[in-house]
Structures are given as structure tokens and as C-alpha cells.
Amino acid sequence: MPPIIDTNICNGCGKCVQVCPCDVFYQGKKKETPIVKNSYECWHYAACVMECPVPGAIELRIPLSHMILYK
Amino acid sequence: MEKEIVKTDVLCIGAGIAGLMAGIRASELGAKVVIIDKSENPIRSGCGGLGNDHFHCYIPEVHGPDIEPYIDEFHHSQLGSLRNRDFIRTWMERSFDMVKLWDSWGIPMKYNGKWEFAGHALPGKPLTWLHYAGLNQKKILVREAKKRGACIEGRLTGYELLRDEEGKIAGAIAVHNKEPKAVVFEAPAVILGTGVTSRLWPAPTPACLFNTRLSPANTGDGRAMAYRAGAELVSMELEVIRCGPKYLSRAGKASFIGVCRDVDGKPVGPFVTKPDIKYGDPIVDVYQGIFAEHARQGKGPIYMDCKGITDEEHGYMVHWMANEGLRSWMDEMKKEGLDFRENSFEFWTYELFPRGGILYNEMAETSLSGLYAAGDEFFSGISGAAVFGWIAGENAAGYVRNVSSASLYEVEQYVGEGVGFLNDILARQNGAEWLESNVALQQLMNDYCGTLRSEKTLTAGLLYLRRLKDKVHKTLMARNQHELMRCIEVLNLVDLGELVMMGALERKESRGEHRRSDYPFTNRLLEKLLAIRMKDGHPALEWKGV
């Protein structure tokens, strides 16, 4: 379940934690890579992706339950 | 939990468009303002967090000097009726001022140097929705609020309003969602701007409660707090439905430039046969239940088909979509290799949500002295949030100049009871979790107060819901502050569910999405508001004029 943080790239700034409207993330200490604690409470709105200052450090994975139906 | 006491003149609960506009205006008029929000930093929170692209407004140079025909059209829009003409006139007369203000702050309200109106309209009828680029609107409003000295406190969920012995507002209790503390605000004026009520009915993906069209963090907290404090709510029984892409739920249907077609390619609505950049396909506004109804009748899915748009029109459409919070939906399209010019997308009818709420007048006043409300506390969209947030801030700042500061001493007992109740929830080792409670409520709302209602189903539903409410109050548990926030949301939703069911039982007619199998007709004698307020600890209903 989303979002996915690349721990090798994340600089631990905590911006994703701060802007998430659903309190999905948890960051124990400053500069620590946040953990995705409440993934089922994600709105898949991409506020975290939008505000992340490091390209590629966070990605939103849309779960299969939310797949787009098209033809 | 520890108790922290904060004194201020005006407390805004919710840092959405309404709360920020209220905070901005009250601050610039000299009031000391605190704005609280569930998120740590509200630049992306709420239904406008990743932007909006339609602002309902009246611009004399576009619509002509006479506002009356415009007001007539407003009554037929997706925000119309249920409001009296004076309220709508104030709203629309002030709307252009807000547009100019936002534009001066750096929210692009013009497109290529002009006022661009499109969407949410029928062909040949006046266009009343201004297309604007609201992607960063929240960032800008937060900046403007801070610039004027308003204090923004994050991670706080409003829990209960406080009133003094005379019944005037004295402040509110809020709860932190990370640190074990409750913050007691001593404030003679409180402005509620907590937005819509999501998560009352099951989402199109019932196992995923947070897959909602509008923000799932908005759970009617303002309505529930106002009701418990004795304020009047209205029209809670008159729900609305919306539609949009399936399954990833998202608002923004009016930004699609396409035609809704059945599996054979036939348009399902009478309005358009090819993509139209001014009107989109109005069927998504006027008959939002069509997608579920079509499927129920075995006619198969309906697709939003944008094929046939030019590259220029495509660029125009995705520009607005990116400003309308559809970012993650479009990112997913890209990942899947999809293109509007080649693919069509199934649309679906989403769950019900209450349109009614706190009755606030054109001064943004509620029925309680010192309590103001704005925006989607009674469904009104972006411009309603901007206009009435601004008006609420203006009037609250005036009110606090003439009212002696409330004393927490008088309300100490209520603070103790409120915080004590939450401490009980935190202390329980076993009990009902917030998630199972929310699911239980959604099941009851769906099965007993859904899209087809009757006295028999509603009566049974109320019996079950009150039983659930009792169990929730006695057994709800939270392992930490985050869960406590969710528990507060569920307590609010359960209260509101009861009010919706009571209202639905009382309204013995069918009107809009309130459909009664035992009263399948619309009764013009009931073109009235159904008000609910708490009397002696219980909900009491009263009919009143619009």
C-alpha cells in the first residue's frame, strides 16, 4: 500500500509528514526517514509527492482496489 | 493527557479556505487569531489542498449589471435552493471582491489575461463558474494569514465547544494527534470551517474508507460540535450524490471535456455528442446517479469519452485538471500508459453525503452568540468558503471588541468532563476500535438510510444506530493520540448519522436524493427547512421557512 519512501534518497526533512492531511506518516526524530504507519488512511492525493524536495524520494502507489477502469 | 490553556480572541477550527479567509480578515481588523487544523502544516489539507479550478462568482462586466437573472440561474445550479435569495445575493455580490483579492495575492484567477467561464452549465444558459488555477491556493492563503499575525497550530482536532453560563461561546477543547495533550482555548468567538462530512456512507470501495471524493479527514466535526453545543443544523436529511472516475474516487468531473457514452458508443445524455470545451457533458451535473442506475438495470458501464478533442483542447483540459486535485489520478494514467485521446474512462456514482449542516446567515452567524460558520459547514463550495469565511472573520472581530472575555473558570466542569471522557477512551485496554465503529456506522447508513428510504427501514435503522451509539460511547478505545483523533471523528459521525436518520424519517416526501418508497412524490408544502437542535440532551426537530 502507498506511499513508498526510498530510504536511500530520503533526506528526512519531514515535509511529507507535515503536509499529509490524513496523518499517514510517523517520524520519530527530526532528520529520520519517516515511516508509512497508517497506509489504509491514505487518500492517494499526492500532497506528499508534490511537496517532497528530493525527486524520486517518495512515490505514490495506487492500490489495486483503486485501479482506474478504462477501455 | 495534559491540559494546555491558550487565550485568544478568535479561534478558527479548520484551516481550509473558510478558516484561513476568516483568520486573515479577523487578524487584519486587529483581533488575536488562532487557526487550528488536523494536519501539521495546512498548505495541502482539506478539499482544496491540491487545488480547485471552479469558483462560483458574479462578475458584472461578464454577466451584466443586473444580478437578479444570475441569482435565478444560481438556484438551478448544483449549489442552488435551500438558501434564501438574500443569502445568495450577499454571496454573489461579494464574490467578485474575493476573486480580485485572490488574484492580487497570486492565485491566478484569469486565463490568458481574461475571465474564463466554463463548466457546470447547460448549453445556452449563463456560465457562472470562473475557471481559475487554484493549485497553490492553500499555500498562498496560509502565507497571507501568517503575514497578518494569525497563529496557525497544526495537529489539533476540534473536539467540543465551550459555552458560559449565559450560553455565549467561551472557547473550545482540541486534541493533539501526536503528543498526549488537550488544548483548551479560551476564546469569545469561534469560527467553524471544518468542511464536508465524508465517511458517513460506504465509499465505492467499501473496504477502503478513505477512498472518498472529497477529503476523508473531513468528518463533519464542525456540524457535530455545533449540534452538541446547542446550535441549529438544517437539511441534514437532504443528501447529494456526486460522480466521477471509477475506482480511484476524485472530485473534478466538470473538468473533463468529453461525452458520457454507453458501451455501444451512444451518448447517455441529451446535451452533447462531441467534446465541448465550454460545457463538458452536463449529464454529470444533472443526473449523477445515472452511472449506478445504468449498471443496476444491466445496461453496462458508462464511459467518459474525450476522444476527438484537439491537442489544443487536450492541453486546456489537463491544465485545469492539474489545478483541480486530479494530480494523482493523472499520474496513474501516465504510469498505465493511458491517454484521453485514445482511451475512455468508466465513471461511477459515488456515495451520498450531507449537503445540509450548520445554519449560518449572510453574516456567517449561527444560532449561538459568538459562534460563526462558513463554507462547507453548509455545503457551499470554494466561493462560499471564501466569501463567508471573510464575512465570518469580519463579524467575529467586531463581536470580540464588544464582548467581555470569556472565563474558563465558568466552564471548568465541562472541560473536566470532556477531557475525562477522552482519557477513558485512552485508558481502555480492550474495546471497540475506531475502524470497526466507522464500518458499523457505514453499514447502517447504507442499509437503512441509503438511496431508497421508508418509515419501516428508517425506524429499524434508528433503533440499531442508537444501540451502536451507546456501545461506541461505552467501549471505544484508542492506543495513541492518532487513534484518539479517529475516535473523535467516529463519535461525530455517529451523532450526525442519528440526525440524518431522524430528519429522513420526518421528511415524508421524496426530494432530490432523499427518496422515500412510502412517499414517492415531492410535496410542495414541504419546501421548508427541517431544523434539528439539541434540547435537554436529545435531538428536537422543527420545520421552518427557507
Please tell me about this protein's structure:
Chain A is mostly loops. Helices cover 14% and strands 11% of the residues of chain A. A two-stranded antiparallel sheet of chain A has the order 1-4. In chain A, strand 2 and strand 3 form a beta hairpin. The termini of chain A are far apart. Chain B is 36% helix and 17% strand. In chain B, a hairpin with a 2-residue loop joins strand 18 and strand 19. The interface between A and B is large, with 30 and 46 residues.
How are the secondary structure elements laid out?
The complex is a heterodimer of chains A (71) and B (546).
Chain A lengths: L3 E2 L9 H5 L5 E2 L8 E2 L10 H5 L6 E2 L12
Antiparallel strand pairs in A: 1-4, 2-3
Chain B lengths: L1 E6 L2 E4 L3 H12 L4 E4 L17 E3 L3 H4 L4 H8 L9 H21 L23 E3 L5 H11 L3 E3 L2 E8 L5 E8 L4 E6 L2 E4 L28 H8 L4 E2 L4 E7 L13 E3 L21 H4 L3 H7 L6 E3 L5 H13 L3 H9 L8 E11 L2 E2 L12 E3 L7 H22 L9 H16 L6 H15 L6 H21 L5 H26 L22 E7 L2 E7 L2
Helix pairs in contact in B: 1-5, 1-11, 4-11, 6-15, 13-14, 13-15, 14-15
